[in-house]
Structures
1.
Amino acid sequence: MRLLILNGPNLNMLGQREPEIYGHDTLADIKILCEQEAEKYGATIDFRQSNHEGVLVDWIQEALGTVDGIIINAAAYTHTSVAIHDALKLLSCPIVEVHLSDPHTREEFRHKSFIEPVAQHIFKGLGKDSYIAAIKALAA
Ligand code: CA2
């Protein structure tokens, strides 16, 4: 099983600000945890981050027919990106939306998700465990 894990803007800064919301782990820490979890299921992961919407769209398009599942934390693009929504819609593999925090308990502008309509599962508010839950869900 090949899993693509995509991370959106500013997540490369994790662990440096707002630990009360996002925790103390860096994205590199989360990548290692994901690799360890994936190994339990014999899965391989390709873990990426970009601050650029078009790059995320390119990566989603490249995933067409080459991966068995996508886990995506689109960060702020979750709430704005029709382009990422449309790209994800092209895929036939399962899509899992993840968030470290629970956007629904935060500012109103975070309540709308353009990923939600195309996702089979959503894990949010669990910190890094949202990613682990997503890997488990895809492995199951
Ligand atoms: O909770 C999540 O995972 C979010 O996707 C994180 C996004 C936010 O826009 C979404 O509403 C919810 C923000 C990522 C910002 O990353 C930071 C990294 C370091 C320090 C502070 C924020």
2.
Amino acid sequence: MIEKDFIPSAYQHQIEEGKVTWKSPSNIALVKYWGKKENQIPSNPSISFTLDACATTTIISCKKLAKAAATFSFDLFFEGKPKEDFKPKINTFFKRIEKYLPFLKNYHFTIETSNSFPHSSGIASSASGMSALALGLMSLEKQLNPAMDTSFFYKKASFLARLGSGSACRSIQGTIMQWGHHAATENSSDLFAIKPSYKVHSVFKNYHDTILLVDKGQKQVSSTVGHNLMHGHPFAEERFKQAHKNLLALKSVLEDGDLDSFIKIVESEALTLHAMMMTSMPYFILMKPNTLEIINKIWAFREASKTHICFTLDAGANVHILYPEQEKEEVYQFIKNELVAYCENGQYICDRIGLGAKQLINKVE
Ligand code: DP6
């Protein structure tokens, strides 16, 4: 599919008003997206576990305007309160997607959004937030074009979410999502995420992700700035090649359930991501001393316990601890006894691999 395929032809239906609610999860990348081209096109393919507990719920209400507005008309509420500082991001998002959702200027929107995870936990809400918003807008478009089929609905939701935040395109469905053109993956695309077509080994069912909140503060360098620093980065081309190789290797690992190889790929990807940050110009470090303490403790425990605990990182200091369902008691005891001490205010979130976003039925008022 190409961009043009997401531009709708004239709508068959009209609606005066509408209200839709979607709950969309966050995701954690195994092979990382780091570096992008114009129009939110990734420099390399990536793959992630969709999460379950960390999610954003977004209600979109819309009312038809008497005549199309010159600018986007919307109010935004975050956890029940007006949130002016989120508005420019939504406005940019609307501008980017207007071509694909031509009804946007015909309505006034009220967007009410809230997160399941604590505010300022250092957990990126852009993936869950942008995917929930994209799905809500797609539900409204579906009311204007009821003939739209389900597979196109999800593809376009992922396509739109990508234009809000790259990693958001991987949050629409579960349990494993791949985004970005990859020669060895049929139907892979830079424009939206897909579910890999192979059968994933049962060891990855109910895989756990316990997120240790090491530093809840605002990041010094945003992901967007970090992505841009991959332009002209001395190691960029090698890194992009490596992501293609890791994605291919991970395919057999996910099929065979080879956890030792899984650990090697996932931890190497996490450290490579941070190595890219440390070797860009300007260089920066997002890990904190406690991030490294935790990594060393995980390595020592893995050696001693022969479990398959491993870590990954996103663009921050928090540590995601991944482990299979079969080892959950032993690993969770270790986390509580030895790692929680390194978390800010002892905070952590127990999450696991999830099925993707869900539409919630609006309460009748
Ligand atoms: C490190 O998706 O937040 O989490 O497209 O600029 O919104 P934008 O970036 P974003 O980048 C996430 C990068 C990452 C790795 C990943 O999720 O693949």
3.
Amino acid sequence: MPRDSGSDQPQKREHWASKAGFIMAAAGSAVGLGNVWKFPYMAGENGGGAFVMVYLPIVFTIGISILLAELIIGRAAQKDPVGSFRVLRGRAWPLVGFLGILAGFLILSFYSVVAGWTVAFAAKMATGMLNGQGADPAAVFGSFISSPMQPLLYACGFMVVAVVVVLGGIRRGIERANLVLMPLLFVILVALVGRSLTLPGAMEGFTFFVTPDFSKVTGATFTAALGQAFFSLSVGLGAMITYGSYLDHKQNIGRSASSVVGLDTVAALLAGLVLFPAVFAFGVDPGAGPGLAFVTLPSVFAQMPAGQIFGTLFFVLLSIAALTSAVSLMEPVVAYFMDQHGFGRTQIVIATGVAAFVLGIPSSLSMGIWSDATLFGMGFLDLIAFVTSSIMLPVGGLLIALFVGWVMGSRAIAELKGNGDTPPALARAWLFILRFVAPAAIAWILIKELIS
Ligand code: TRP
């Protein structure tokens, strides 16, 4: 068996060492701030169970189909996102890959800023700054994110760690880190759920999260749920094309995709079961928005027995989730420059890390000294987050669905079947979703969003 370990040899493509390694890496990409930070606060703002009931069907139809479509593109072409479209079709389609790589880079820039906050809060929790006598989490959070230097130092530290992982390449870097960090993440998550659900008064939060109140479902709920599904599953920009390109043809790719989507969904639901029972048990507002994890939750930990330990664990969990996702935002950019321009991994990983950090500076400052500089009523971080997750990812997902559904068509089905046992009815349902359901749903939601 050939061993491809040389990380600076663009000719010879590295492959995942094991199926479990690939699934952990893809799940590590999917499970991120989107699950543990954003999903609970979006559910909190959108009626709890009502949001979950809209979110889950989207994930298990459109979401899983596009994730599988990306893996198929990558595995078939064995290239970065731009190169993959070139190999499979050429002409204008590689533009989809460019759009994706740009989106990945933009997301990485602000993602590392928020990830820096989580690392900082892990430290603040551990040292008791957030739950000592009279500690005020809202004030701590507010003054931390609005200070110019501190958040940047944490963002820089976080980026350095992500760079170190990606420098190691596929097997020794990304796969190995995920094989350690993902099981750890789930252990912490389950421990926190246990703590939260056994608090007196936890039932009310549990009920809020699992009981759909359909009067709360509006058009906006669908827009929010679709955007969240794309972001959470890491689809729409070619991250899964890139990870799929490190697969060989031996595996049943349909089953792997289901595992990844399953793990991502379980992680989001477990995060909800950490947040809501705790938040309701202490009678605070579940609709606090982005501050839910950083302000509401620390105030809950401050009142809880052994809150300092559980609070620290929570922010360590968030930091791990963020790291394995950030790595997957960097890799498509890296793969592109290695595959298409012959760069060595080392050069391009460092260049990408530095550039994304520099672009993150205005995002970070937009929370403080630059908060008055707004465009369309949004600060820099909010604007980039909006343009990427509400526009670029859905557009990317739409085009990927059309490409696999119509351009690849029967070739995609052949790729899916491979040597495997995918039931023909499922394969047909998948193609139908890619051809009709996903494009129509995404187009409808995009149009609604842009005219509102
Ligand atoms: N899925 C990650 C989260 O939930 C974020 C992420 C990582 C991502 N890679 C991506 C989003 C690629 C879109 C595309 O936090």
4.
Amino acid sequence: MSEGSRPHVLVTGGAGYIGSHTAVALHEAGFCPVLLDNLDNASIEAVSGVREICQEDLPFHQIDVRDGASLDKLFSDLYAQGTPLQGILHFAAHKAVGESVAQPARYASNNVGGLAVLLETAAKHGVNNVVFSSSCTVYGEPSQVPVSESAPFQTAESPYGWTKQACERVLTDHAQSLAGAHVALLRYFNPIGAHPSAIIGELPLGVPNNLIPYLTQTASGIRQKLTVFGNDYPTPDGTCVRDYLHVMDLAEAHVAALKWCKTQASTSSVVRAFNLGTGQGASVLEVIQTFERVTGQQVAHEIGGRRAGDVVAIWADPSRAQKELAWSTQRDLATSLQDAWRWQEKLGR
Ligand code: NAD
Ligand code: UFG
């Protein structure tokens, strides 16, 4: 299928970690992903990687989502060339929890302000299908696990968490105000791993905050030792529990969510939240042990103090996504860690 005959969809943050993998999944499903990114936290090589995997010169636009005039022109140009946008997958945002504490206004401006500009432009051009990157951070410390979509939001632990709650609210109000708006709020648990080709993956800048990039960098000798943040939590082995899902499973969930948006009645407005996770929790020590087993690499690690703001244990009840999106994870923790390691080996030291 040539680029021109595929339904075009906008992927904001398309050069980033999850956006780039989703672009591949969209292409595989017959869409033409139009990548948009300001390259604030990404490299143009990710765009080349997506093009290499898809074997197609997919469109890329270096635009900031807060730049309404450039967005407006992009939507108009796509319409004029006979490929109007069929939907938007909105990934573009700042995502570092610690940084958000130091720079709350920057996070509000980019994450909430960016969404607002995007929605105004989309409404003007009649683009009604929106898939949004939310996070299980909206739940805070859940009162029961697995957590379902009906669990109440807790007061946000960080300005980053607040932006996700605020964006969900803006999208909910937007859907109620606009006939025919179809919005999927995708609450990710912990995405990890990389495309099995190792052509694209996660590119953390500087010292990683997240467990998996820190772990793979330690195994490859870039970092001396991984610190396990606390082993005195009320969990089976004392370390925190999370729901780690493969980034390609997550990418495929976006395709399912987009299709869900497209099948909603054109006159009715709907907004629906979906948990995206495996439904299984794994502790920090289990992750380290699984990584060592499947890769044969040793991970130097020590037990340290707790990290401020960490939730003790959270994993998803993904049954709504299974039922309504016909989606479930296909790759297990071992596969996700193998793919993360293959990507790290390619990056080298
Ligand atoms: P990422 O930083 O790799 O990707 C985000 C991309 O958006 C980057 O390429 C960045 O350059 C771009 N961007 C940022 N602000 C922009 C702007 N104003 N205009 C245009 N482009 C802009 O992050 P990711 O891990 O791929 O996350 C994607 C989305 O998923 C984010 O909204 C994030 O909050 C959310 N999310 C991520 C995780 C996770 O663990 N990675 C978990 C839950 C939710
Ligand atoms: N951890 C360590 N050592 C490290 C890094 C992390 O022990 O060097 C532990 C953490 O304490 C936590 C677990 O590994 O128990 C996972 O930590 P991550 O930082 O990888 O992930 P989080 O669950 O803290 O946060 C992630 C994203 C957030 C998002 C949240 C929910 O980083 O942006 O998932 O989606 F909000």
